[in-house]
Specification:
By secondary structure, the chain is an alpha/beta fold. It contains 14 helices and 13 strands.
Length: 365
């Protein structure tokens, strides 16, 4: 179950530095934490989760396989992208394929690094990108509604639903708001998602600060956090400069460097985890002597759907899921201890998987 986060940003905000640090850090991880470059601008990284190591230690698993997230370095964003400036349409198409947007904002002062508009104002920069996405959505909606006219005359139900949703999105966009503010009913959720509007995607603002502000942020990042909260989006503070330095170090050296900087963890770990939370994702585990593995699901996923993440046959032939809560697995020393204490549960098709569940699926072939 792959999840993609597109990294966007205006020129000279540190976007490429951040992405390069992300890929170098991932590539330097142990073999159990794989990184692969699918294309030159696509990187797949492991989602940091200390629980997986603890589970593997108890089960004496030979290998550890974390869940992963894909980051796409999206080039070509300049003012006017919606009209084809820069890489224009290619940029917009790349964003359309992602699940969320990580928007890198310049929150540092540096006379040697020129800002595209000659000033440091991350909130204004965020508005430039949001405006381009809104304009692109409006253009797309107008074309699509025009293409539905014939079907609407024939009272085509699917076309009527699509046109109604497009009209709702158009109304908020023309009011200067992104399409994500539209309140969509549960029965319309699937059709709404199929519209693939750019401004429906959740946004994670990445405040790129200088080294001295990496721990606490600064006034610029505080303004971004305030904006994110008002929008219902998320924000994280990172120093791309520090992340680039860390990416060149061995793990033990990186840990010492972070201690010296007064940082509890690498900013990239916070970025990955924030993206995971933004997309409302959870993790369940399968654990045994061969491997301990993390699997990604959306919050609210049923046991059969969770089984389907491993293999479609698991979902089709689902019988039940033998389930142990993470805390019970750890406290009772593993599967046998949990069984003996009556903490292994047999859950059926209606069970909603909880974050941290250790699961074993029984199914018909």
């Amino acid at each position: 179950m792959g999840f993609k986060m597109g990294i966007v940003g205006l020129p000279n905000v540190g976007k490429s530095t951040l992405f390069n640090a992300l890929t170098k850090t991932a590539a330097a991880q142990a073999a159990n934490f794989p990184f692969c470059t699918i294309e030159p601008n696509v990187g797949e990284v492991s989602v940091p989760d200390a629980r997986l190591d603890k589970l593997a230690a108890i089960a004496q698993s030979k290998s550890i396989i974390p869940t992963r997230m894909t980051f796409v370095d999206i080039a070509g964003l300049v003012k006017g992208a919606s009209k084809g400036e820069g890489l224009g349409n290619q940029f917009l198409a790349n964003i359309r394929e992602t699940d969320a947007i990580a928007h890198v904002l310049r929150c540092f002062e540096d006379g040697d690094v020129t800002h595209v508009d000659g000033r440091v104002d991350p909130v204004a920069d965020a508005e430039v990108i949001e405006t381009e996405l809104m304009l692109a959505d409006l253009e797309s909606i107008e074309k699509r509604r025009a293409g539905l006219v014939r079907k609407l005359k024939g009272n085509d139900k699917e076309a009527m639903l699509q046109d109604r949703l497009l009209a709702e999105a158009q109304a908020v966009l023309e009011d200067g708001k992104p399409a994500r503010v539209v309140e969509v009913s549960e029965e319309d959720a699937k059709a709404w998602k199929m519209l693939q509007l750019l401004t429906t995607k959740p946004v994670l603002y990445v405040c790129n600060v200088d080294e001295s502000n990496a721990a606490e942020g600064n006034d610029h990042s505080a303004a971004v956090f305030k904006m994110a909260e008002a929008q219902g989006n998320a924000a994280v503070v990172i120093s791309a400069q520090i992340e680039e330095e860390i990416s060149q170090l061995e793990p033990d050296e990186a840990e010492m460097f972070l201690d010296e900087m007064g940082l509890a963890e690498a900013g990239l770990d916070r970025l990955i985890r924030a993206g995971y939370e933004l997309l409302h994702l959870e993790t369940y585990f399968t654990v045994g002597p061969k491997e301990a593995r993390a699997w990604t699901i959306r919050t609210g996923t049923s046991a059969p759907k969770a089984a389907g993440v491993i293999h479609g046959d698991f979902e089709k032939g689902f019988i039940r899921a033998e389930t142990i809560a993470y805390d019970d697995f750890i406290a009772l020393g593993g599967e046998q201890g949990a069984k003996d204490a009556g903490k292994m549960r047999a859950e059926g098709k209606g069970y909603i998987v909880k974050d941290g569940d250790v699961m074993h699926f029984l199914f018909n072939t």
